[in-house]
Amino acid sequence: MIKKIPFNIFKQGQYLAMDFNALMAVEQLTNRPIGEIIKRSASLDLTALTAILSVAVHEADGKQLLLTPKYYAKKIQEYLLESDNSNIDEIMEPVTKVLITTGIMGKSLYLTIFPQEETKELKKAAEIEMEEIEKNA
Question: Buried-most residue among 5, 38, 86, 136 (CB within 10 A)?
């Protein structure tokens, strides 16, 4: 099941949701592999950010908006200039969370962000994943 991440930045009731098809769409929009985008997610990459928003934003009724990255670049700029006390982290945090929901960033990180989703199987898979990371470090 695809998780919904609340995203009331541009309009109340909107949310972010992604699956692997959306990840592939982001790759096509940015001409970069999703792994490269994720590695750079700690830094501000407006191309990736606007591409993710263009495929991830949904209305409260579930309708996917599919607006262009340029549209979201304009919306981000308006938000940052017109909203008191706004900052880019308010946009980046839910975008990072929606990437994590796809599972592409690993089970351990998923459980760190969404501990309420823990099952025995998921916890065990996360432990194995961490052991592999430590072994290969």
Answer: 5
What pLDDT tens digit does each residue of the chain (137 aa) get?
A: 689 999 999 999 999 999 999 999 999 999 999 989 888 877 768 999 999 999 999 998 888 888 999 999 999 999 999 878 889 999 999 999 999 999 898 888 888 888 898 899 988 988 888 888 888 87
- Contact predicate 17/4, CB 8 Å: yes
Structure tokens at 12: 């109340």
Question: Are 118 and 25 a contacting pair, CB within 8 Å?
Answer: no
Looking at the DSSP bridge assignments, the partners of residue 5 are: 16
pTM metric for this prediction? 0.87
Decide if 97 contacts 18 (C-beta within 8 A). no
HEC sequence for 3-62:
CCEECCCCCCCCEECCCHHHHHHHHHHHCCCHHHHHHCCCCCCHHHHHHHHHHHEECCCC
Cα pseudo-dihedral 25, 27, 29, 32, rounded to 10: 180
